[in-house]
Design a protein that fits this description.
Layout (H helix, E strand, L loop, with lengths): L1 H19 L4 H16 L2 H18 L9 H10 L16 H20 L27 H10 L5 H13 L3 H6 L5 E2 L4 E3 L3 E5 L3 E5 L9 E3 L2 H21 L21 H14 L8 H12 L4 H8 L4 H7 L1 H18 L10
Antiparallel strand pairs: 1-2, 2-5, 3-4
């Protein structure tokens, strides 16, 4: 009887799991995508998983779920940091944050298998990630460079004047900028509301999605002259629509292609790179305007909650983690200013 109970216990612990879990990683991951990801997660996450899956399947797809070891996953994770792993001309590896995203997807597949009763252990728990470089300063324009950029922008086409004015003075994400519609602008109160985002997926192309987080839905007050530019852009777009007639593809967006369809997300990046090269200005990408906006708010004395709300961060801790050094510098400047404003004589060594 004791031997029989031992066998039954062993089968309960291992039997069904080993049978159900004996499935190739790619086969099960595709089932996970159709059963869970496509039904429960947003388009942004779906697009991210679809992008990462090709590389993950190439490394682990042929292996059986119940046979994959932490060492095999660790080897793949390490390879992502090696030179050339980001598949661009700079020859670098993926950033620690990107590597973490790959591991998170693999772990999510195993977590789903455990939830379905197919496995009992997630090997990703034993994998070590490269350290995040939290101390690295975000590169962005100085005040002088920002002014030079705005001065040069006078000669740019109207839509780029509007785009980068919003990027700098609003600190909006690229997908938020590309998702703006004219109805988002209150021309009386001089406020603009972030209600949606525009993203690209290989399967569907440029699509509209909800904002990155709930707190990304926000309303900001901006300088009145920006709204004057938006009005001019609306008039210019109306003329383009009349000129194209039936060929115009109305989408309501501020920023469109020549035929009225939503502008691709890489177009602003390409234009900015070319513009900065022509004007002999530093090129730090589009996201640097968001960092510049945050830095200016902090140096202007705004607290972390106000900065976090303006940027649309889901948690104030996110803002603190990204801009910890900037807050420290601003606090030091404020302390020095207070000391200069209130000189004291006590506590000093008397002659």
């Amino acid at each position: 009887e004791l031997n029989r109970q031992m066998v039954l216990f062993d089968e309960e612990c291992r039997g069904s799991s080993l049978t159900d879990g004996h499935i190739k990683f790619e086969t099960f991951a595709r089932q996970w995508m159709s059963e869970y990801v496509e039904k429960s997660l947003g388009k942004r996450t779906q697009a991210s998983y679809a992008y990462m899956s090709e590389r993950i399947y190439a490394a682990l797809g042929h292996l059986y779920m119940d046979k994959i070891t932490p060492r095999q996953i660790q080897k793949f994770i390490n390879s992502l940091s090696e030179p050339g792993a980001n598949q661009t001309k700079d020859g670098k590896g993926l950033s620690p944050k990107s590597v973490k995203n790959f591991l998170s997807m693999i772990s999510a597949v195993f977590a789903y298998a455990i939830k379905m009763g197919m496995l009992q252990y997630n090997p990703c728990r034993a994998v070590t990630l490269p350290p995040l470089d939290t101390g690295k300063e975000k590169q962005c324009y100085t005040m002088e460079e920002a002014q030079a950029f705005l001065d040069a922008l006078v000669d740019a086409p109207l839509r780029w004047q509007v785009f980068f004015a919003l990027a700098l003075f609003g600190g909006f994400r690229r997908e938020e900028l590309c998702g703006f519609e004219f109805q988002d602008f209150d021309f009386d109160q001089h406020t603009v509301s972030v209600r949606r985002a525009s993203i690209y997926t290989p399967a569907a192309g440029t699509v509209t999605t909800p904002t990155k987080t709930v707190k990304s839905r926000r309303t900001l007050k901006l300088p009145a002259w920006i709204f004057d530019l938006v009005k001019k852009l609306r008039v210019e777009q109306a003329r383009q629509r009349l000129a194209l007639g039936d060929q115009w593809k109305e989408c309501g967006r501020l920023f469109t292609r020549a035929d009225g369809s939503p502008m691709s997300l890489d177009q602003p990046y390409k234009w900015l790179r070319s513009f900065c090269k022509e004007k002999k200005l530093p090129f730090y990408g589009i996201h640097q305007f968001r960092h510049l906006n945050a830095s200016l708010l902090i140096y202007n004395g705004e607290d972390v909650r106000a900065v976090s709300a303006a940027l649309g961060h889901s948690q104030t801790s996110t803002t603190l983690n990204i801009y910890a050094h900037t807050f420290e510098t601003a606090q030091a400047r404020a302390c020095d200013a207070l000391a200069d404003a209130l000189p004291v004589k006590f506590g000093k060594k008397q002659a």
